[in-house]
Design a protein that fits this description.
Blueprint (H helix, E strand, L loop, with lengths): L8 E4 L14 E5 L2 E13 L4 E9 L6 E3 L17 E3 L8 E3 L15 E5 L29 E2 L5 H13 L38 H13 L3 E3 L6 E7 L5 E5 L2 H4 L12 H4 L8 E6 L19 E2 L4 E4 L9 H13 L5 E4 L2 E6 L2 H18 L9 E4 L1 E4 L2 E4 L2 E4 L1 H8 L7 H12 L12 H4 L2
Parallel strand pairs: 1-4, 9-18, 11-14
Antiparallel strand pairs: 1-5, 2-3, 2-8, 3-4, 6-7, 10-15, 11-12, 13-17, 13-18, 14-15, 16-17, 19-20, 20-21
Length: 448
Amino acid sequence: MRDNGCKGVVIWRQLVDAGQLTGECCLLLRIGNTALLAEKAVINLSTPFLSREVKAFCISDTICYVIVGNLDGARSYYTEELYKGYIARDQDIHQATVDEGPPTSSSAISAVTLTVIEDIEGEHFNDSDCETLPELGGWGSNETVNDLQYGDQLTQDQRRQLEEIASSYSSIFSDRPGTVSTEEHRIELTSSTPMRQRPYPVPCAMTQTVRDEFKKMEDLEIIRKSSSTYSSPVVIVKRKDGCNRVCIDYRRFNKITTSNPQPMTPPADIFKGMEKDQYFSKLDLSKGYWQIPARKKDILKTAFVTMDCHYEFLRIPFGIMNSGATLTRAVKKLLCGIDSVVDSIDDLLKHTETWEAHVETLGELFRRLREANFTVRTVKCVLGSSTIDFLGYRLGQGTISLQDKIVQKVRNAPRPKTKKEVRAFLGLVGYYKEFGPILLRSLPLFRT
């Protein structure tokens, strides 16, 4: 079976000899609301879709003898001459019937999709673990001003002052993106010919989740149904926190978009003059990009397509060219004239040496956020703390140091074995080069 939504090759375990198993850790595969453990094996595959040695996932369930997913060299389309039998699957992925008759040359084979979720060390798995598998979402948490975090070192009177200020501007504290009134995103193209792409296949196990996600975005007026002549495909990206994010592949569209960059302040300059500061407050804009509206005549250019629907963005879509520049300009405009407030895209940091200055400036910042219709994530805000984590650094108590998780990430990084892995590791530690002058010795490695 050929399945464009699968991330590799899946084979029935009984077709694999013990000598072909690699002995590597099992993989967790998700099929709908169930999960399966799979072993890794190296097999010689000969099918109408792919013929070479591949690493496959072996499962005991007889979903199909062999499923060929997205691999280099695998055919995406197939005809009657290539494949005479096919498996038809309905909405219930656990039901399958074999149709002995040949499909027409234009027929597509509908298949269940297996999605590799993560590597695991152990071999024990039960049904309750399905609830912890990553899903799209993160909506509807109904965050309020009561979810704000405050510095542990604050006195009762200091905390009361901050709570009163926050309550006065409670409307800005929400996980729902606002609609900024001070900036709009503009799209200038180098070609007047509409750019249109076919939709990418979405794993069957995630199809309904993706539909639900777009329905929520539509309800929040982030997107709307479209009849635009433009269309970019949807792609699902796994985030570092394990969740899945629905993104739009604007790479081809970006190639015909005129660049309009906005300079960003490097961290070294952001942290200058903070050595004496005693109070820090950090704010995180709620889905920052989605708070900036798209210019009306440019909305149709943001259109994207799924397997069953066509939408367009009313706000800035993540991944489109100049989106970061537009958001940065909006934030710079917001902070213009306010002392001791720095920004990095959608993160804001207020820092002062005295408590009085901190309270006064924080109130002014909240006022401007409300006037511009910005909202901030309550659970990600920290007010009046003596130490704060920002852009991978820890600030406070007269020092600028590395976050503990960054130190552990560097210490536990696997030994690089290829040029690409060496450069990836050097990119990680190079961000903190001021903490390790010895990194200058790595220059020859970049030239390898």
